[in-house]
C-alpha cells in the first residue's frame, strides 16, 4: 500500500476535512500544485478555485477563496479564507 498524506482543510467557521488521503491538488497564486505523501516542505498562498482531494480512486471537491497551504513533515494543512464542499 502506498503512503498516505495527512490533510486538513480549515475555514474560519470549522474544519471541513481531516484525514489520510492519496493526493491533494490546490490552486496556488503562483500556479496549481499537487501534494503527495513525502512532499518537500513549502508554504503557498491560495487563489480562488477548487481543491481536489483524491483518495482510494474517489475525488472530493472543495471551493476555496484565498488562504494559505503549509506542507510539512506531518502533512498538508490548508487555512482557507473561505471553503465549502462542491455539490456532487
Low-confidence stretches: none
Distance between the termini: 28 Å
Average of the residue pLDDT scores:
95
Strand line-up of the largest beta sheet? 2-1-9-8-5
Helix content percent band: under 10%
Largest sheet: 5 strands, mixed
What global shape is seen? globular
What is the H-and-E element order?
Answer: EEEEEEEEEE
Total strands: 10
- Portion of residues in beta strands equals over 45%
Radius of gyration: 12 Å
How many individual helices?
Answer: 0
Q: Structural class of the secondary elements?
A: mainly beta
Task: Kindly describe this structure.
The chain is mainly β and 88 residues long. Helix content is 0%, strand content 67%. The chain is built from no helices and ten strands. A hairpin with a 2-residue loop joins β8 (67-72) and β9. It is globular and about 30 Å long.
Task: Provide a short characterization of the protein structure.
This protein is mostly beta strands. It is 0% helix and 67% strand. It has strands at residues 5-10, 15-21, 23-28, 31-36, 42-46, 49-55, 58-64, 67-72, 75-80, 83-85.
Keyword list:
88 residues, mainly beta
Amino acid at each position: 500500500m502506498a503512503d498516505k498524506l495527512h490533510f486538513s482543510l480549515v475555514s474560519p467557521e470549522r474544519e471541513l476535512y481531516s484525514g489520510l488521503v492519496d493526493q491533494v491538488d490546490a490552486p496556488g497564486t503562483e500556479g496549481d500544485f499537487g501534494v503527495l505523501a513525502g512532499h518537500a516542505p513549502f508554504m503557498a498562498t491560495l487563489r480562488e478555485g477548487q481543491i481536489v482531494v483524491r483518495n482510494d480512486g474517489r475525488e472530493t471537491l472543495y471551493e476555496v477563496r484565498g488562504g494559505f497551504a503549509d506542507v510539512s513533515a506531518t502533512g498538508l494543512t490548508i487555512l482557507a479564507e473561505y471553503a465549502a464542499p462542491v455539490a456532487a
